[in-house]
Amino acid sequence: MRTPSYITSLMVVSASLLTALPALAEFQCAPANTSASLPTRDAFFASEMAAWSKTTRSRYTEGKSASDCRDVTVPGYEGFPTQRCTYENADAGVGMFPALKAQVIILDPSAQQLAAWSINACRVNGATDASMPKCLDRLRNNIIVSNGAQFPVVGSVVESYCNSSGAYGECKSLPKNSPWLRPRHTWFRDGVSVDFKPGFGVHWDDKDYMGLFDKLLDVTQSDRQINTTYKTARIAAAERDQWRSWRRHIGKPEMTDGVSGTVDGAGWRTVAASVHRAACRGSSNELFDAVVFANKSWTTR
After folding, report:
1. What residue spans of the chain are helical by DSSP H?
2. 247 vs 235: CA distance, rounded Å
3. % pLDDT > 70, the chain
4. Which of 56, 115, 132, 140 has the highest CB neighbour count under 10 A?
5. How far is CA 44 from CA 4, 31, 36, 151, 295, in A?
6. Confidence of residue 13 (pLDDT cuts 50, 70, 90)
7. Residue 17 contacts by C-beta under 8 Å, 6 or more apart in sequence?
8. Would you call the peptide bond into 235 cis, given omega within 30 degrees of 0 as the criterion?
9. pTM
10. d(CA 166, CA 205)
C-alpha cells in the first residue's frame, strides 16, 4: 500500500503509521487503522527517517510505477497490505547482462517504521545519545547491503549470483562480464530464502519463470514444495544464532507466540514472519533488537 504525501507534526507522540510525519508516496506494512507510539521526541527520529527514505524510494521489487503492484491476500498475512509486484532487475550485471523479469509478494515498511525500529533496537541495547549515530548508521548500512529493506513474503528476489551467495566472490571484485554478475532468481518465503524440492522444477537460476508465478505465489501449492530454509531473516539481516542469543538474554523461548519447536528449518520462517507482522503493528522489531545485541560494539562510542 502506498501512502499519500503530506506533513504532520513531529511532536505527535501516538499517531497512525499510515498518516504520521512527512512521507513520500511509499509502501508501509501496517494493517489499516493501526496506531503505534512512534519515538517522535527522540532527538534522532527525524534524521533517521530521512536517511531511511533514500532506501524506501529505491526498492526495486516495488516496480517502477503504481501499476506494477496490486493488492493481494496471502494466508497468514490477512489484513496486512501485501502487494504482488512485477519488476525486472539486473543488479550488479546492469549494462552487461539483460535484466531478469520476476514477480514477488512484498510487505515493505515505510521510512518512519524503519526509523522507529532502528531507534528502539539501539536504545534497548543501551545506546546513549553519544553512541546513537554510530549504532543507527551501522544497523542501517547492514540492512541496506543485505536486502535494501525489502520483505518478500513469497516469490523471487532477482540479484546477481555474486550477491546472492558468497560462493561466487564479491561482485565489486569480479572482472567486467564475469558470468557471476548475471542476475538470477533467489526464492523467498516469509523473508527468508528457500529452495524447492528437485521435482518442482524451480531453481536459483536465470530461467524465465513468468508463466509459473501464479503457481509459485500460491502458497497453498508452493509451500509443500519447499526443501531448505536458509539462515538469514529479513529485514534485519538476522541470523538464527543471533536470535537465539537475544531470546536467552531477555529470558524468552526461541519460538514466538507460544509456538512449539525450534528455529531450525521451517521454524525460522515462522519466527521471521511473526516478528515482522508484530513490528508492522508497532514501533519495534525484535529481529532488529537481536542484531544490535549481537553487535555490541555498535552501541559504544
Report:
1. 45-56, 111-124, 132-147, 161-164, 213-216, 219-222, 240-249, 267-281, 286-294
2. 18
3. 92
4. 115
5. 24, 26, 18, 24, 20
6. very low
7. 28, 30, 34, 35, 36, 38, 110, 112, 113, 280
8. yes
9. 0.90
10. 15
What value, to the nearest 5°, has the Cα angle with vertex 220 and ends 214 and 221? 60
Distance CA 69, CA 109 (A): 15
Region 127-156: what's the mean pLDDT? 97
What's the CA angle centered on 194, arms 191 and 195, to 5 degrees? 160
Identity of residue 293:
F
Helices (H) and strands (E) in the chain, counts: 9, 12
Question: pLDDT tier at 64 (50, 70, 90 boundaries)?
Answer: very high
Q: Which cell goes with 98?
A: 539483460
Cα 42 from Cα 131, distance rounded (Å): 14
CA angle, 196 then 268 then 249, to 5° = 160
All cell numbers assigned to 60? 526495486
Bridge partners (DSSP) of residue 106 are 83, 152
Looking up cell 539481516 gives 237
The alpha helices in 210-285, defined as continuous H runs, are: 213-216, 219-222, 240-249, 267-281
Name the grid cell of 268: 525460522
User: What pLDDT, on the 0 to 100 scale, is given for residue 301?
Assistant: 85
- Distance CA(190)–CA(196), nearest Å, equals 15
Copy the grid coordinates of residue 82: 501485501
